Amino acid sequence: MKKIIFATGNKDKMREIREILSDCDVDIQSMKEAGINVDIVEDGKTFEENALIKAKAVAEHTDAIVLADDSGLEIDYLNKEPGVYSARYMGEDTSYDIKNQNLIDRLDGVPKEKRTARFVCAIAAVLPDGENLIARQTMEGYIGWEIEGKNGFGYDPIFYLDEYGCSSASLTPQQKNQISHRGKALRDMKEQLKNVLN
Q: Which is the catalytic residue, given 39, 70, 129, 156?
């Protein structure tokens, strides 16, 4: 069985990845599960650069296929903040309840049509032969006026979707995987990896 190591320690992310790639006959491990412990400095200017930095750093320690993602929230009214700094916004140890409330407060008085936002996900793959692949997808929505929903993580509770009339944290995991930036990027990457995995 082919092995994929995903360069993350995030349990929620690993759960999503395993659900989306469940139809592939492949063993998916996190860095930790694969026993790889590297300090990675994400100093790229784009989601794609950061994803590739992570994938290459882990690929140095294994001959498996390595995938890494970099994802974040872009809010148009705030000049696409927090962007590539989404995880580090207001400090890495700051809870998302505080981060989410801060973003809602910064949009105080801003009408709905100017609250447009998107989740962006770039996934990079480093293959055993050194080849690199990139997939990038988005999920469009807007920033709501309150924190809502218990199913998501990160910025999901303030990211609202018109077609569902609720935040992405109120969707079931199955609904979210169908439309999410990560779900779409993973399916795109799965397509690109088809020849390698077969």
A: 70
